[in-house]
Amino acid sequence: MRAGCGKPSIRHHLSVIRRARRARLSYDRPEPYRLANPAMAVMATTEAPRLGTLCNLTCQHCYIESSPKNDRLVYLSAAEAGEYLDEIERLGLGTQLIGFTGGEPFMNPELPAMLDLALARGFRALVLTNAMKPMHKVKPALLRLRDRYGDRLTIRVSIDHYGRQVHETERGRRSWMPTIDGLKWLAANGFAVAVASRRLSGESEDQLRRGFARLFADFGLAIDAADPVALTIFPEMDEAADIPEITEACWGILGKSPDMVMCSSSRMVVKFKGASHPTVIACTLLPYDPRFDLGPSLAAALGPVPLNHPHCAKFCVLGGGACSRN
Fold first, then answer.
1. 223-242: average pLDDT
2. 23-41 average pLDDT score
3. What 8-state DSSP symbol labels residue 263?
4. Which residues are CB-neighbours of 122 under 8 A, at least 6 positions away?
5. Are 295 and 101 in contact (CB under 8 A)?
6. pTM given for the model
7. Which residues are paired to 100 by β-bridges?
């Protein structure tokens, strides 16, 4: 990573950036911060032999390389997820949201039980899914959860573009209509729904939102494409790109705060293949980088997180990305 915050129009700040060139940012505070907003993103991946970060698709640019063959992460069981929910309550973290992602989380047969555990304790729950066949297999369980917990359960559907061609270029042939059908089923059955998309096409965010507004209107979906919560558009990432290092000087230059990035308020729980216990990761995007493995407990994972990975700058600070639903 190169030094600086990547804002070429602010030349008068270059001397400040040069002085900060060697300083990598960490969230130094008088005491460890608390996870007080959307909190633990649970990688919904049940412990099963030879199965890993399982997904029914192999996307061209998956953030964590999920596929039908990736077994670097094994499934969490409902019992293991429950242990972390217990710890959240013991620590008094003020957690509001538990996010479940994958892989394709509905491939985990224990996901409905995990959702019930989280929702029954008063948390909100968010599931990030492609809304394809694995989700349809658990429709009865989903309907029961909807009846019991209402809009405290949100299903966020991944649609990589408002047009079929770009979406299927990323996700594969015949992936478009099953996802659209899944989204329509969720909306028709009264679920709280949202959409997650990406900047794959090179269009501006305004262009993408206008395109999705047309798509939602065409299918009669009451989703506000102008709402960044209802339609989240993630920035793209490239670990090989020359990304500016985020220094202390950049926050003032960019008009942002460390509190705005995901790792100031969230943690992810995963279980590596061969491990006896899950572990806590600083960021949903970095499960494989040992620098961001914070150990098996949430209590030990509340400390500062250095922003020393390209994704920190590209996705979070400069890109404004956030996986949790605020």
1. 80
2. 33
3. G
4. none
5. no
6. 0.75
7. 42, 127
| Closest among 156, 158, 159, 86 to 123, alpha carbons compared | 86
Neighbours of 255 (CB within 10 A): 6
* Pairwise CA distance, residues 108 & 45, whole Å: 6
Q: Are 107 and 56 in contact (CB under 8 A)?
A: yes
How far is Cα of residue 295 from the mean position of the Cα atoms in its chain? 20
Distance (Å, whole) CA 41 – CA 206 = 28
What phi, psi does 77 have (nearest 5°)? Answer: -90, 165
Angle between helices 164-171 and 176-188 (to 10 degrees): 110
Residue 7's Cβ-count burial label (10 Å; 0-12, 13-18, 19+) is: middle
Q: Which domains does the chain have, with CATH numbers?
A: 11-317 (3.20.20.70)
Query: Can you tell me the distance from the alpha carbon of 281 to that of 309, in angstroms, rounded to the nearest whole number?
Result: 14
Q: How far apart are CA 221 and CA 296, in angstroms?
A: 41
DSSP state of 243: P
Task: Indicate whether 4 pLDDT > 60.
Answer: no
Provide, rounded to the nearest whole percent, the portion of the chain with pLDDT above 70.
63
Task: Give phi and psi for 96, each to the nearest 5.
Answer: -110, -35
Average pLDDT, the chain: 75
Taking the C-alpha atoms of residue 60 and residue 315, their distance in angstroms, rounded to an integer, is: 18
CB atoms closer than 10 angstroms to residue 183: 26
CA angle 224, 173, 156 (to 5 degrees): 30
Number of separate helices (H) and strands (E) present in the chain: 10, 9
